[in-house]
Amino acid sequence: MEKERGKKKKQKGTMFKRSLFAASAVFVIGATTVAAQNSDYFSMFFGHEGNAMDANQNSIKASKIVSGIEMEVEETIIGGKSALIIVSFEKQDGTAFSNNVKVPALELDWKQNASYMVDQQMTEDHKKLIAMFDIDTTKKIDGKKLKIMANKLVDESTDKVIADGPFHLSFEASESSSSKTIETNINLALSDAELSLQTINISANGIGVEGTRQDGKTGELPQSTPLLKVTTLDNHTFELKSGSTSTTETGFKWQFNLDEAGERLLLSNENIKSVTIDGHTIEVTKE
Q1: pLDDT per position as a tens digit, 31-52
Q2: Mean pLDDT value across the chain
Q3: pLDDT of 14-28, one tens digit each?
Q4: Considering its fold, how many domains does the chain have in total?
Q5: In the listed set 125, 152, 172, which residue is the last one of a domain according to the structure?
Q6: Do 192 and 131 lie in a common domain?
Q7: 195 to each of 16, 182, 265, how far by Cα in Å?
Q8: Does residue 1 form part of some domain?
Q9: Which of 117, 147, 172 is the last residue of a domain?
């Protein structure tokens, strides 16, 4: 397990995330103060892109109070084997936190193999500490029971414990209504692998491409990635880069969720007309 200040990478099994936030200014390390009103929590992590995500996210509203702190699963974006989960911590009496409050240990407890990263930010009024989980798994997440765990809230400037846990909150994952799964059959030859692609998962969290190796190296993840381009309904075309490569029960998955500059983004997936992978076009929405 690798740890960085304000951002963590967790691994189980043989999954890994590769350069998920490389060269990205979207996620700010540390508990940065960012304006957020109502349910604009995704905009805290993705800027203006997060403001347009209302149609793509589910409001879970599962909550639990421990030591005077309400822990709540606010919103999720789930598609196929990837998810974004927003969790908040708020004082029950409605008073503000200091700017340096963090949760030292935030965990996803799920019995399946999962790889995830976590970032924490404070709302502008200091009344909510917001955490976002960015998750890849080996199985579809929809309908599964997930548990978020936190050990305590601490003022990092003084090491004073603001509220002692543990905080454990379980909820049932529900796939976003705008997410799409498309079955395909594409044979792909990369520099290091012969592959067959079978499933395309499209959500605001990016485009997941699942497949299997056809060169006998079933225990190895491909090290290279194909060229993936997205065409919108107004015929604008742009490239997406892979932010992670992970194992699945039958093979592997690329999650394409970085722009051409390597910055993390959210997709307005309802406006996608087609996806092209190394010249193979998959129709997503008919005009």
Answers
A1: 333 333 335 788 888 875 544 4
A2: 81
A3: 333 332 222 222 222
A4: 2
A5: 172
A6: no
A7: 19, 17, 27
A8: no
A9: 172
